[in-house]
Amino acid sequence: MTNDIIHDIDHAAPIEIVDRPVPLARRLYANPSLRRLGVVVLLGVIWQAYGVILDNPLLFPRLSDTLVALGEGVMSGEIPKKVLISLRVLLMGYGLGIFAAGVLTALAATSRFGSSLLETLTAMLNPLPSIALLPLAMLWFGLGEASLIFVLLHAVTWVVAMNTHSGFLSVSQTLRMVGRNYGLSLPGYVFRILVPAAFPSILSGLKIGWAFAWRTLVAAELVFGAASGKGGLGWYIFENKNELEIANVFAGLLTVIAIGLIVDSLVFGRIEKHTLRRWGMQAH
User: Fold this and answer.
1) I want to staple 276 with a disulfide (CB 3.0 to 4.6 A). Which of 84, 86, 117, 281 is the partner?
2) Residue 45: inside a domain
3) Are residues 257 and 47 in contact, defined by beta-carbon separation less than 8 angstroms?
């Protein structure tokens, strides 16, 4: 009977595989960028609908009014000027925070004392809100950019150091032994062994550090701008709130959100595409 079944299978008609085209809607849905765009459009529709229903521009302006205010601020050059001020300070604080985190994690990866130092400092200082340090920073460094940079340094250092240190701890002992057997120097051991193996955790820390720094800067500029009479986007929001230009306030908030989305997509998204996904360390 078994032979009959095998005979029937051998003489069975070949199965025709039909290559059916994927529906357009499914292809569009499979694109993560289009999905995110769809979420943004949906939120914009809800915003506009709620503004129309509420009908109170001083409390919650419509999206259309906010976009008009945003266009006027861009055309006048005021919003681009504030953006440049904020980004310049942000990049300085963010860069110093990454440098400090790199030094601390390098020490932690190569000595027990450095590991204990980083873990203790992270446990002590990471829960401390960065904005809470602004009064002390203004007392120590005066009413200047140095105060903002100090606050940003605190916001970035600990989260980047914590994620990087966790990534270093997850590196296998085999890779560590390879680095030691090759007789690599400390910089070579860190950058050629630890950093590539721990890169997913490092990139995650950099993304979180960027988000912390961006929101800390805007919040700090609200206070700092009120004290010094100048600043970036935070001061722009604060100033327009005092003048009851609520559409401009929402335009400033929309600018903050837009910059966050652009940096996440164009900077960190491209880094992920050319590193983690290419190396097979993250799913597409």
Assistant:
1) 281
2) no
3) no
CA–CA–CA angle 158, 160, 164 (5° rounding): 115
- State pLDDT tens for residues 190-210: 777 777 777 888 888 899 899
> What confidence tens digit (pLDDT) does each residue in 87-130 have?
888 999 999 999 999 888 888 877 888 888 888 888 888 888 88
Q: What's the residue count for the chain?
A: 284
| 93 vs 13: CA distance, rounded Å | 70
**How many DSSP H helices and E strands does the chain contain?**
15, 0
What CATH code is carried by the domain that includes residue 99? 1.10.3720.10
> How deeply is 109 buried, as exposed, middle or buried, from its count of CB atoms within 10 A (0-12, 13-18, 19+)?
buried
Is 62 a member of any domain?
Answer: no
pTM, two decimal places = 0.77
Domain count along the chain = 1
